[in-house]
Design a protein that fits this description.
By secondary structure, this protein is an all-alpha fold. The protein has seven helices and two strands, in the order H-E-E-H-H-H-H-H-H. Strands 1-2 form a two-stranded antiparallel sheet. A hairpin with a 2-residue loop joins strand 1 and strand 2 (41-42). The chain is elongated, with a radius of gyration of 20 Å.
Length: 235
């Protein structure tokens, strides 16, 4: 496999980027003890400092750029498997690329959307508006961007995860089939389940479920690249 060491390095960069994205999610979405969720509204938003949201956006921009380096390494891995491991499902390869690009775009979009909603609520909380008016105003603003936000989320998580599971299931990645479950879509679902619990630390951890799913998916990619044969002189 050509450029094997470079691809492994890029995958590691992507994993570090995913970890940074997790930090960004915790800064903006870990609400702490005593938070009460009312639809999309979080009762602890007024208690959170503006600095947390600002740092979250800055960290998100750095993390997702590094994360994309690793996703590009994944795309190159799948192209190599097309040539070296027999029949290749072009539709699945294209699906992964669409998902990877959509995730890179939508991560910042989604972060910005939720942070904007939190800041609007936080600002209105300090006015003379009634609680019901604050909630309706904040949620009404959010619904203007909800359709593209959730569309990007579905395309990115579904595209990357379904394609990844396809390649793992068909044995093309030289990793255990147990890794089938280590993808962003599965961890997103687990995160939603954790949010149903009454344990605030589990709910806070779930805020970073998606980038954590990307991180463990990339760990599978790193393992797969490491197991590919060394390049031949005529390769």
């Amino acid at each position: 496999m050509k450029n094997k060491n470079k691809l492994m390095r890029d995958m590691l960069i992507g994993m570090v980027g995913a970890a940074i994205c997790m930090v960004a999610c915790w800064l903006s979405g870990a609400y702490g003890k005593g938070n009460v969720r009312n639809g999309y509204i979080q009762s602890n938003w007024p208690k959170m400092s503006y600095m947390r949201f600002e740092i979250s956006l800055i960290v998100s921009a750095v993390g997702i750029a590094m994360n994309y380096v690793g996703l590009q390494a994944y795309i190159k891995l799948f192209r190599y498997l097309k040539r070296k491991r027999g029949a290749y499902n072009r539709q699945m390869g294209t699906l992964f690329e669409i998902g990877a690009v959509s995730y890179t775009i939508s991560y910042l979009f989604i972060q910005s959307g939720y942070i904007m909603m939190a800041l609007v609520y936080k600002l209105l909380f300090g006015t003379n508006l009634m609680g019901a008016d604050i909630i309706s105003t904040t949620e009404g603003m959010f619904f203007y961007i909800a359709i593209p936000l959730f569309a990007y989320l579905i395309i990115s998580l579904g595209g990357m995860s379904v394609a990844y599971m396809h390649f793992v299931w068909n044995g093309k990645m030289r990793v255990s089939k147990a890794r089938l479950l280590f993808n962003p879509l599965v961890f997103f679902g687990l995160g939603e389940l954790l949010k149903l619990t009454k344990l605030y630390y589990l709910v806070d951890f779930a805020a970073a479920a998606i980038p954590f799913g990307v991180l463990v998916m990339m760990a599978g990619g790193l393992s797969s690249i490491a197991k590919q044969p060394a390049p031949k002189t005529n390769e």
